[in-house]
Batch of 2 targets.
Target 1
Amino acid sequence: MLRLSACLLILASVTLVASCKREERTFRVEPPYVSGVEKISVTNLFAGGAPATQPATSNEYEENAYALTEGKRLYGFMNCNGCHANGGGGMGPALMDDKWIYGDQPGQVFASIIQGRPNGMPSFATKLPDHQAWQLAAYVRSMSGLVKSDAAPGRSDHMQSRKAENSTEPESPKQSRPPQ
């Protein structure tokens, strides 16, 4: 009887240890290293030294459906619709075309969100932590088809009026104008 109990205990512990790795889920991806983001400025003065020369060229949040969904939620919560409409442009530039004033690389989009831009784009450095800014940057890039289509942001399919953001083909600019 004691021998049977010991065998069952060993079998249970082996099964428990083997199943732990299988059940591990990662919902949070580490954001890219922030200091590699290109600083775009209006003047030659830089606080804390010269800016980095190479923007971050990859964002792991672009491969994560949960992060894209969070970026979509943040897009609405931070009132990005107020200026950029649903990506088609309005008071702010369009986010669904292939011409980006400050660059379309992940680091450049992140820098635009965090630093703000002249003539209207506010800085969200004090309003968003870095991981949320990277999620928002991933969603913004997905709106113009710059993200792989295998991770889609969440959406309500019963009210779907167009394809998912990352399923759209890159579009040519309709009314692109330089900043004033």
Note: The helical segments are 2-22, 65-77, 81-84, 106-115, 130-143.
Target 2
Amino acid sequence: MARDPLEVLTRPAPPPDLTLRYGPGPDHVVDLRLPADGRTPRPLVVVVHGGFWRERYDRTHAGPQASALAELGYVVAVPEYRRVGQAGGGWPGTFDDTAAWSDRLADLVVAELGSGTVDLDRVVYVGHSAGGHLALWAASRHRLLQTSPWSRETPLPVRGVVSLAGVCDLHLAAELDLSNGAARDLMGGDPTTTPERYAVADPSLLVPSGVRSVLVHGVEDTNVPVALSTSYAERASSAGDRVEVVELPGVAHFEVIDPRSTAWPAVTAALESLL
């Protein structure tokens, strides 16, 4: 019998080793999972979960993915953020939270674990689906005008971004009406009615970021078509960024976050290539 690709969303995973707080709200938290062998320093992998930015999907479903990465020897952080349907979620709160955790995460981890435990010269963001959008955006915030509250001229150095079936092109997501208007729900409008919002929230418009990216995408993905990755890659590479698209034949949307899937070796290889 074929395995249900959605099973990973509800599969039990070991609980996080620690949960840290980066803000005052109930969703302003980061789960940490640590390697078992205790060797240091270790790279920091930040896993940004997906779910089309909606309240229904929280960081719990990233447990199997995060646990598997910790077993490979990484310090793994999974930030939560406010989502559409929650008080303060969507525009601008989801972006407020993404900016906040990306500003504070390194200091929180070092304060909790000690300065010698994490190699802050080897930080990679790994984002799935909507999390791919947020991961790329977080790594591109220095491209925002300094008048933006989210601009940070010298952000935490990020070695790279691994986008897994990412919503890398927010304009195209709205144009294709992905998940019944998920991008419009996030932004509170479409690119024609709220162009000023898309201009600062779409990572495909914030290139060149100067950050390497590997975009892993299943060819059979109907939730987020592979065109969302190839569109971003064309813009980013034309602007001078180093970006690679890894297209996986026979792979759909959720296999890329499932450590038991045939897609998983491509995910770990993408991560290793950035480190």
Note: The first strand starts at residue 18 and ends at 21.
